[in-house]
Specification:
Rossmann fold; Leucine-rich repeat, LRR (right-handed beta-alpha superhelix); 3 domains; 12 helices; repeat; LRR_R13L4/SHOC2-like
Length: 495
């Protein structure tokens, strides 16, 4: 570990993530999951598996946020992301951050394992729920290590923990199927590199050009090699997975003329710094970029204008002061997604110059306290999602100028006390989500002018605010989000 870690990162204590405000078809699976892990004393580890997109992560989040589960496990609920490359050291550090304690330096995995075992012993006063999210095939050794701790703990009676793990085998199956064809003819090419051991065919430049339309390269924390030249002229999607604190885009990216989508996933502990990002300036077809755990300021100093880029997504990134320059380089942006970027306090004013923007989604940025006063300049905006921005105080009055806005989501914005007086001028509004806005006590009279409004998502407390408008807004349907905290159904289910 780096001894010079920023103070704010060391003290970070992320909460268990919230599930979406609206879910479909997961009530019965949730009941079954609760029955298994709360009712059956013989079950201490459960593997949840399904095809991609079936809602495994959402179900696990719903389970963690369920009131009965909270009553059972109290403050001993931990939700940890594992992903492609299982890393016990990273898992242990996530636990440290969750507990709000100082991050130790582990020289090897055995030291991390010893700390984890001691942590489990110290948690014996209450049951412990540990969710390992997004566990891939090939991670059996990681699960076996937890199981080993379980059996060792049973001898002195301290082990009462429960585990839920998520396991998507179909992704690995798709990779295996794509690997059956000769390298030069594969439509999707996946490279998994350990250390600096590059494939022999790559170092020997065996193939002049690779025809793959999708190229995925995964490297671990020991990778430091210089990339040999690769020719992938047909590639439209590039996925780069890495774990190092500093990562340089391969030089061959500059010649990927057909590239449309770039995905950078940092599976390390802290946001990584990127080099060679300026190479993207030559890619005239690049439409989408997704960055995970990336430090934005270093990028902003070298980024050239990307006039073709339409969508950018930032997940758990270090925003810093570089966000202003990033937005200046993306004049034709249509969609901006920011999720779990904890240092985002205020959106820059130049965000309002992105006149082509149609979707703005800022979620789980708990320190965000204000939106730009001129947000009404985003006249083409159709979706504004501000979910789980706990410190957001208000919506600017200029929001009334968003005549094309169809969906407004301020769910779980606990600090918002009122909606703008001129909200009725938003003549295209079809749907609004105000669930868990506990300080919202009244609605402006102009709500009656929202003639296109057909769905209001709210909770039991805010439902009464909308009911008086039902005779006027005849197409409006109020959907109340409910939490089932009754365990009586457990006795009615078959054994």
């Amino acid at each position: 570990m780096n001894d010079n870690q920023p103070e704010e990162m060391v003290k970070c204590s992320p909460a268990v993530p919230e599930p979406p405000s609206v879910t479909v078809g997961l009530d019965l699976p949730l009941k079954e999951l609760k029955m298994k892990l709360l009712k059956d004393e013989k079950v201490s580890m459960l593997v949840l598996t399904a095809a991609g997109g079936c809602g495994k992560t959402t179900l696990a989040k719903m389970f963690c946020q369920d009131q009965d589960v909270k009553d059972t496990f109290k403050n001993n609920i931990f939700f940890l992301h594992v992903s492609k490359k299982p890393n016990l050291d990273l898992i242990v550090h996530q636990l440290h951050r969750r507990k709000g304690s100082e991050l130790p330096a582990f020289e090897n995995e055995d030291m991390a394992a010893n700390w984890l075992q001691q942590f489990l012993k110290e948690s014996r006063q209450n049951p412990l729920l540990l969710v390992l999210d997004d566990v891939w095939s090939g991670s059996e050794s990681l699960l076996e290590k937890f199981d080993q701790f379980k059996h060792e703990g049973e001898t002195d009676g301290y082990y009462t923990e429960h585990f839920v793990t998520e396991h998507d085998m179909l992704r690995e199956l798709a990779i295996n199927q794509a690997s059956q064809d000769p390298i030069e003819h594969r439509k999707r090419l996946f490279l998994n590199i350990c250390g600096n051991k590059l494939p022999k065919w790559l170092t020997e430049q065996k193939y002049q050009a690779i025809k793959a339309g999708l190229l995925s390269i995964s490297t671990d924390g020991a990778f430091s090699a210089k990339w040999p030249n690769m020719q992938v002229p047909e590639a439209e999607v590039l996925v780069l997975n890495f774990e190092t604190k500093n990562y340089a885009l391969p030089g061959f990216v500059e010649k990927m003329d057909k590239l449309k989508v770039l995905i950078l996933n940092n599976y390390g502990l802290l946001p990584a710094e990127l080099d060679n990002f300026e190479l993207l300036g030559s890619l005239s077809n690049l439409k989408r970029i997704r960055l995970e755990r990336i430090s934005i300021p270093p990028i902003s100093r070298v980024l050239k204008q990307l006039k073709s880029l339409q969508k950018i997504s930032l997940f758990m990134c270090d925003i810093g002061q570089g966000f202003v320059k990033i937005l200046d380089a993306l004049p034709n942006l249509v969609e901006l997604n920011i999720d779990y970027c904890h240092d985002l306090v205020q959106l820059p004013a130049n965000l309002c110059d992105l006149v082509h923007l149609k979707k703005l989604s800022i979620t789980n940025c708990h320190k965000l306290s204000a939106l730009p006063a001129d947000i009404g300049k985003l006249v083409n905006l159709e979706v504004l999602r501000l979910r789980s921005c706990a410190d957001l105080l208000e919506l600017p009055g200029s929001i009334r100028n968003l005549k094309d806005l169809k969906f407004l989501d301020i769910s779980d914005c606990f600090s918002v006390k009122e909606l703008p007086e001129g909200i009725g001028a938003m003549c295209s509004m079809e749907k609004i989500n105000v669930s868990q806005c506990s300080k919202l006590k009244e609605l402006p009279a102009s709500v009656m002018d929202l003639e296109q409004l057909n769905e209001v998502i709210c909770d039991k407390e805010t439902k009464t605010l909308w009911e008086p408008f039902l005779p006027i807004l005849t197409n409006m349907r109020i959907k109340v989000i409910k939490e089932d905290i009754n365990l009586n159904w457990l006795n009615k289910l078959p054994p």
